[in-house]
Design goal:
66 residues; mainly alpha
Length: 66
């Protein structure tokens, strides 16, 4: 077995990870920016918080996009 120079390996791994994270962020942004998906995600969070009684007596404002 011979010794190979892996000097740029870590940088390449970070670059691939960064591109993947940015792609995922873009996809999530597009889904949430759409009014339908934004309402569904908001509804899930509000239901979860109400289930644990964190929002007792707190009015939830309607949030409009664009």
């Amino acid at each position: 077995m011979t010794h190979q120079d892996d000097e740029g390996t870590t940088t390449a791994e970070y670059a691939v990870g960064t591109i993947g994270a940015c792609t995922l962020a873009l996809v999530l942004h597009e889904l949430v920016a759409d009014g339908y998906w934004f309402e569904r995600v908001t509804e899930i969070f509000v239901r979860a918080l109400r289930w644990h009684n964190f929002l007792d007596g707190v009015p939830i404002p309607r949030i409009g996009l664009r």
